[in-house]
Amino acid sequence: MKTTRILHWVFTGLLSALLLMSVTMYLVNHSEIVVVYTMLGFPTWIIYPLAVLKVLAVIMFLTKFSSWLTEWAYAGLFFNLLLAMGAHLAIQDGEQIGGIIGLVLMIGSYATWKIGWKH
Question: How many domains does the chain have?
Fold first, then answer.
């Protein structure tokens, strides 16, 4: 059980760092992100709402304030990462690795949370 919790915090810490780096890019390099979102075919107005939602997801992953909201944060992030990976694969720009890494970390975080915590 202790090993599972340690693994959970490793996965969750790395996932949180990845998400916060993404949010930082959204805010610091907004004009470059707009170009990427346009190439991917996504609306650019969604950049700031995604940044807010990613920060809220990190808060839920780290605090486990509510099991129900944490489940929704994992679900939302799963679809976000899956769509990001798919969009990069569709335009064949070779940038899908971030989505793949994010999915691996998210699945690891979620699985170890479900195994390591009694609900």
Answer: 1
In this structure, the number of other CB atoms found within 10 A of the CB of residue 75 comes to 11
Contact 62, 14 (CB under 8 A): no
| Cα four-point dihedral sign 30, 31, 37, 42 | positive
Instruction: Output the six-digit token pair for 83.
Output: 């769509």
The domain in which residue 23 lies consists of 2-116
For the record, the structure tokens of 84 come out as: 């990001």
Q: Which two tokens stand for residue 3?
A: 């090993």
Fill in the DSSP letter of residue 45.
G
Is residue 61 a contact partner of residue 73, using CB atoms and an 8 Å limit? Answer: yes
Q: What is the pTM of this model?
A: 0.90
Using the structure block, give the residue that is written with the tokens 């940038």: 95
pLDDT tens, N- to C-terminus, the chain (119 residues)? 788 999 999 999 999 999 999 999 999 999 999 999 999 989 999 999 999 999 999 999 999 889 999 999 999 999 999 999 999 999 988 888 988 999 999 999 999 999 876 65
Where are the extended beta strands (E) located within the chain? none
